Amino acid sequence: MSNILFLTAWYPNKFFPLNGNFIKKHAKAISEICNVNVLFVHPDSEIKKYNYCIKRQNSLNEYILYYPAIKSSIPIISKLFKITTSLFYTFKGIKRIKNETGRPDLIHVNILTRLGIVALYYKIFFKIPYIITEHWTGYLNKTKHFKGFVNKKITALAVKNAFAVTVVSEQLKNAMLNHNLKNKNYRIVYNVIDTNLFKNKTKTTKTIKEIIHITNFKDEHKNISGILNVIKRLSNTRTDFKLNIVGIGVSKKKFEKYAEDLNIKDKFVFFLGKKEGKELVNLINNSCFMLMFSNYETFQIPVIESLSCGVPVLTTMCGGILDNSEEQFGKIIEPDNENELYNNIIYMLDNYKKYSPVSLRKYAEDNYGKEKVAQQFVDIYNDALYK
């Protein structure tokens, strides 16, 4: 059984409990075939000495290392110290994991850039191969977040020397290639959906038809304001629906206030906060359809969770996993087109029963089940280690 070290820039932690939960799902799925040790380091302004939060479950060991935050008012010095301190504790964490679990056979980097350089160091000096998995929307043209000459050169170096680079969509692969991030072995490996948790159940007919939207409340990304505008317009023509908004984020109160100003809060729009596990599954199952109005995506986990529950979707052509040729799953519309959203919400409210729950779930099981995704990663590990 291979010993895999996950280095990740995003991971659920005490400050951001949902951050990078899709990376945790990858690690958990792979741990059913390999030994997986996850290292995530994060600054903490409330502590004076570093400490670990370690969780062990079967073949998955999570090392969450919190270290004292750098406090400096000088931007250049602050940034430099933050980077070097993060790297210092990353190497410290790797040393502890190595002492406790043995030398890693392969390093799996999740989210560049600095962790790619750490992996490159271990490849050069210890002959440990590494692969990269990238999720970041910052490479997309619509975001323009991938900046800086030095950052781009370092990222390109890390990508070039990886055995493989996996991405969650074709669009993300093309975006990285457009930034000259070249690797001979790009592969598309989807995010994991727990199809044993997200199951469809018998739907009951309701007078009020429920719609569900899952968000992080980043309007540039998810276009919550556009959704609320359309719901306000729709509320003037029909009253047989409600929208449940699930999620947390720094702008949540801002959109609650906006919905209140539109006179739709707690009438047609309900902000439910963080929901996970069976509670989230029940909300999806009680919905007529999942609504996403994103301007851009690399992958849309809520869409696949909805399909796994046999619930159709109304989403945008935003670079996620569905395109306009796949309307057997629901309706696929143009981003930022409120008129199209309005018309298609009406269509879905009136026609959601036309979509086969069995067919929707089969698609999710066949493409995003944990066994399939985990085996894809293990195949890449074996290629790196034994070919």
CATH superfamily of the largest domain: Glycogen Phosphorylase B
Q: What is the percent of helical residues?
A: 40-55%
- Average pLDDT, to the nearest integer? 92
Unreliable stretches: none
The top level CATH class name of the largest domain = Alpha Beta
Biggest β-sheet: strands ordered side by side in the sheet: 3-4-2-1-5-6-7-8
CATH domain fold name of the largest domain: Rossmann fold
Name the shape in a single word.
globular
Quaternary organisation of the protein chains: single chain
Order of helices and strands: EHEEEHEHEHEHEEHHEHEHEHEEHHH
Output the structural class. alpha/beta
Number of strands: 14
What does the largest sheet look like?
A: 8 strands, mixed
Beta-strand content bin: 15-25%
Number of domains: 2
User: Distance N terminus to C terminus?
Assistant: 16 Å
Q: What is the overall number of helices?
A: 13
User: Mind telling me the C-alpha Rg?
Assistant: 22 Å
- Give the CATH architecture of the largest domain: 3-Layer(aba) Sandwich
